[in-house]
C-alpha cells in the first residue's frame, strides 16, 4: 500500500498537498542502481563543474518559486530563505571552482631513485578518485543549503559521485522542486538525469544506507537518528563512511575582563544569536559560562531584556515544538535552576517564545549532576552558567561533549597577550570543538576554503567538514600507481600534466 507524502504548513499545521509517496525497498534499489550508471560520465571534471554552475543558475532562475515553496513548508520567512538560496548557489559555484582548479585530487609524484635508502624507490604516483554513489540525508532546518541542493550534494558531485537524496519530511515539495532543477542541470550539460535521484520515506532512509552500491553517506539531523544510521553503516557486510552532523551545545566562555568591558553588548549579542531563526541553527550557543559578580549581573540583565523583547516564532514542525516546550519546561523545573525568562509555548498554539535558564557552576561540577543542562535543546533556549573561578570553569568544560563550535569572549588586554590565560583557554576550547571563535557568535558559517564545520562526537561522526572546500575530501579515496607505463597513467599523474592540475613532484610543489 502506497504511503502518501504530504507537504504541511507549519504556521497552521494543515496539509497543503500530497507531493509523493514513500519509496519501497524495490524503488530504493532501482534509484541507487540508476544513480550508479551515472558514475562513468562524472569522470569528466569539466562536466562536473558545468553541472554545478548550471545548478546554481537554475536555482537563481527559479528563486521566487523555490523560496515560496520553502517558506510555505518551513515558516523560515522570505528574507532568511532568500539569503539561504544565495548561499546555496554560491557554494555550488565554489565547488565548481574547486573542481576546475584540481588541487583536491592531491596529486603526489615520487620519481624512481635506485640509490634511495634504506631501499631503492620505485616510481610512485598518487591521487584521489570518487568513492561511488553517495547517500545524502537532508536537514530539516536548512531546506536549501543543507538539503537536496546543499553542501553534501554539491561536494559529492564535485568529487565525481552520483547522489541519492533522502528528502526531509518537513519540506518534500521544496525537495521535489530543487531535485528537478538539479536533474535539469545535469541533462543540460550532457550528464544523465539520474546523476541526482530523490527518495521519500523513513524506511527508504534505512534501506538506502544498507544498499550495497552506496559507498558513503552524509547526514544532518538528530543524535538519535544519526547514530542509528551510523551504526547501520558500520554494521554492513562492507562498512561505509558515514559523515553525520548530530548535535552541539556550542559553548561560550565570557571571561571576567570581557564582562567588565562590554557586559551589555555581550548580553544583547547572545540574545540575538540564540534566538536567530527561532533557535533552529546547529551552531546556536546553547551553554554560556558567565562570571559571577556585578559585571556578570549586568550581562544577564542585558540578556533578560533582549530575550523578553525577542519575537515568538513558529518551529519547523509540531513534533519539534512539542519537544522544545517539554525540554524547556524540564530544564526550568530543575531545583538548581532559575528561569528569569521562561521559554516554551506561546498563546499562539503553534509558536514558541525564547528564553533562558540560569544555574550556578557548582551545580554542574559532578558526574550526573543536571545532565539535562548539558544536552542540546533544539529551539530558542540557552543555559547560562555562572562561575566563580577558573577551577569551576574548567570543571564544567571537562563535562562537555564534542561540539561544532566554541567561543571565547575576551578582554582587550587578554586578546593581546600571546602567552597569557586567554591562549590557554583557546587551547582548551580547541579540544572541544571544530571551530573556535573569539569575540563573536557562532551562528553563521562562512562558505570558504578554511572553514571547518564539524567537531568531536556527537557534533559529528567523523573528523571532516560539511562546509567549505575541503568537504569534497569525504567522498574521495587515494590510489597509488607504481612503475606504471606513462601511456597507462591517468592524465593527472602524467609528467606532461595535460589537465594542468597541481602536482607535488618528489617533495616539491
Automatic annotation (TrEMBL):
Any coiled-coil regions, as ranges: none
InterPro entries associated with the record: Ald_DH/histidinol_DH, Ald_DH_C, Ald_DH_N, Aldehyde_DH_dom, Aldehyde_DH_Superfamily, ALDH_KGSADH
Keyword Repeat listed: no
Domain Aldehyde dehydrogenase: 7-407
Keywords: Oxidoreductase
GO molecular function: 2,5-dioxovalerate dehydrogenase (NADP+) activity
UniProt-listed CDD domains: ALDH_KGSADH
The keyword Oxidoreductase is assigned to this record: yes
Catalytic reaction equation(s): 2,5-dioxopentanoate + NADP(+) + H2O = 2-oxoglutarate + NADPH + 2 H(+); 2,5-dioxopentanoate + NAD(+) + H2O = 2-oxoglutarate + NADH + 2 H(+)
Annotated spans, Disordered: 483-509
EC number: 1.2.1.26
Protein name as annotated: 2,5-dioxovalerate dehydrogenase
Organism listed in the record: Actinacidiphila reveromycinica
Amino acid at each position: 500500500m502506497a504511503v502518501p507524502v504530504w507537504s504541511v504548513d507549519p504556521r497552521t499545521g494543515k496539509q497543503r498537498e500530497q507531493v509523493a509517496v514513500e519509496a519501497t525497498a524495490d524503488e530504493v534499489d532501482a534509484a541507487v542502481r540508476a544513480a550508479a550508471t551515472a558514475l562513468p560520465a562524472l569522470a569528466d571534471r569539466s562536466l562536473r563543474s558545468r553541472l554545478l554552475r548550471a545548478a546554481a543558475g537554475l536555482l537563481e532562475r527559479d528563486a521566487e518559486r523555490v523560496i515560496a515553496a520553502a517558506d510555505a513548508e518551513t515558516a523560515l520567512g522570505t528574507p532568511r530563505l532568500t539569503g539561504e538560496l544565495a548561499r546555496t548557489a554560491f557554494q555550488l559555484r565554489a565547488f565548481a571552482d574547486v573542481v576546475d582548479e584540481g588541487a583536491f585530487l592531491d596529486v603526489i609524484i615520487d620519481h624512481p631513485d635506485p640509490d634511495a635508502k634504506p631501499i631503492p624507490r620505485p616510481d610512485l604516483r598518487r591521487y584521489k578518485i570518487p568513492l561511488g554513489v553517495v547517500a545524502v540525508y537532508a536537514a530539516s532546518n536548512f531546506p536549501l543549503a543543507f538539503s537536496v541542493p546543499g553542501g553534501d550534494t554539491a561536494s559529492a558531485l564535485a568529487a565525481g559521485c552520483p547522489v541519492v537524496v533522502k528528502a526531509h519530511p518537513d519540506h518534500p515539495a521544496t525537495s521535489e522542486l530543487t531535485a528537478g532543477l538539479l536533474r535539469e542541470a545535469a541533462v543540460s550539460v550532457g550528464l544523465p538525469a539520474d546523476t541526482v535521484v530523490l527518495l521519500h520515506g523513513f524506511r527508504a532512509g534505512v534501506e538506502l544506507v544498507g544498499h550495497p552500491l552506496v559507498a558513503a553517506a552524509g547526514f544532518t539531523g538528530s543524535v538519535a537518528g544519526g547514530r542509528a544510521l551510523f551504526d547501520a553503516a558500520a554494521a554492513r557486510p562492507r562498512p561505509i563512511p558515514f559523515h553525520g552532523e548530530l548535535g552541539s551545545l556550542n559553548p561560550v566562555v565570557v571571561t571576567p575582563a570581557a564582562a567588565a568591558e562590554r557586559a551589555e553588548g555581550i548580553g544583547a549579542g547572545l540574545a540575538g544569536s540564540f534566538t536567530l531563526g527561532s533557535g533552529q541553527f546547529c551552531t546556536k550557543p546553547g551553554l554560556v559560562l558567565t562570571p559571577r559578580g556585578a559585571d556578570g549581573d549586568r550581562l544577564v540583565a542585558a540578556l533578560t531584556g533582549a530575550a523578553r523583547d525577542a519575537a515568538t516564532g513558529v518551529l519547523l514542525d509540531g513534533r519539534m515544538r512539542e519537544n522544545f516546550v517539554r525540554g524547556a519546561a524540564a530544564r526550568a523545573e530543575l531545583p538548581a535552576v532559575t528561569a528569569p525568562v521562561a521559554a516554551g509555548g506561546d498563546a499562539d498554539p503553534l509558536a514558541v517564545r525564547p528564553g533562558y535558564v540560569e544555574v550556578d557552576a557548582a551545580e554542574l561540577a559532578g558526574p550526573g549532576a543536571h545532565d539535562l543542562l548539558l544536552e542540546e535543546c533544539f529551539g530558542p533556549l540557552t543555559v547560562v552558567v555562572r562561575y566563580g573561578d577558573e577551577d569551576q570553569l574548567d570543571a564544567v568544560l571537562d563535562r562537555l561533549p564534542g561540539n561544532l563550535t566554541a567561543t571565547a569572549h575576551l578582554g582587550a588586554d587578554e586578546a593581546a597577550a600571546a602567552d597569557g590565560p586567554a591562549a590557554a583557554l583557546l587551547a582548551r576550547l580547541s579540544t572541544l570543538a571544530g571551530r573556535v571563535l573569539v569575540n563573536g557568535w557562532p551562528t553563521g558559517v562562512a562558505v570558504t576554503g578554511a572553514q571547518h564545520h564539524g567537531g568531536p562526537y556527537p557534533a559529528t561522526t567523523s573528523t571532516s567538514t560539511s562546509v567549505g572546500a575541503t568537504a569534497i575530501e569525504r567522498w574521495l579515496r587515494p590510489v597509488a600507481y607504481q612503475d606504471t607505463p606513462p601511456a597507462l597513467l591517468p592524465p593527472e599523474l602524467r609528467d606532461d600534466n595535460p589537465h594542468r592540475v597541481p602536482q607535488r613532484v618528489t617533495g616539491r610543489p
